[in-house]
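Design job #97: recover the sequence.
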């Protein structure tokens, strides 16, 4: 990739990270997004008792949110003009998590025009996979440039 294209991609990735930070829902979750390359993302977050279900482990909503976000942002690295929408998401819980640092890793799988498929996985502080998901995302009519948090 030439330097100009590379710097354009970098600007887009940093703008997506800004967009993530600006989303009001993320004020409820101590987390940070890093776009790690074209078609990849990483979200780090801390599981605390504020996200526990009645049996003392992280509720499935936290799994879904972080898996969906990681896959979404991995796919949106390939789209510089429009915001993507999640149209479906399949999720598999493989291990409960009680507390600690968790990483959601997202990876684009296929699609480059209107529909995109991306997958993600959650890894706990011990390096064990605790969840996995696959999502389908579609281009919306919403220009990224119209979103206040997207500073591209």
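Job complete. Output follows.
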């Amino acid at each position: 990739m030439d330097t100009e294209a590379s710097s354009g991609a970098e600007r887009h990735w940093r703008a997506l990270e800004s967009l993530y930070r600006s989303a009001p829902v993320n004020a409820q979750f101590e987390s940070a997004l890093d776009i790690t390359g074209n078609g990849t993302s990483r979200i780090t977050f801390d599981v605390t008792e504020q996200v526990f279900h009645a049996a003392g482990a992280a509720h499935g909503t936290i799994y879904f949110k972080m898996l969906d976000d990681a896959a979404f942002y991995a796919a949106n690295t390939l789209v510089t003009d429009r915001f993507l929408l999640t149209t479906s998401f399949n999720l598999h819980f493989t291990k409960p998590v009680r507390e600690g640092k968790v990483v959601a890793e997202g990876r684009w799988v296929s699609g480059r025009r209107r529909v995109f498929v991306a997958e993600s996985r959650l890894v706990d502080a011990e390096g064990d996979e605790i969840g996995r998901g696959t999502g389908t995302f579609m281009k919306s009519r919403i220009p990224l440039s119209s979103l206040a948090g997207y500073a591209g």
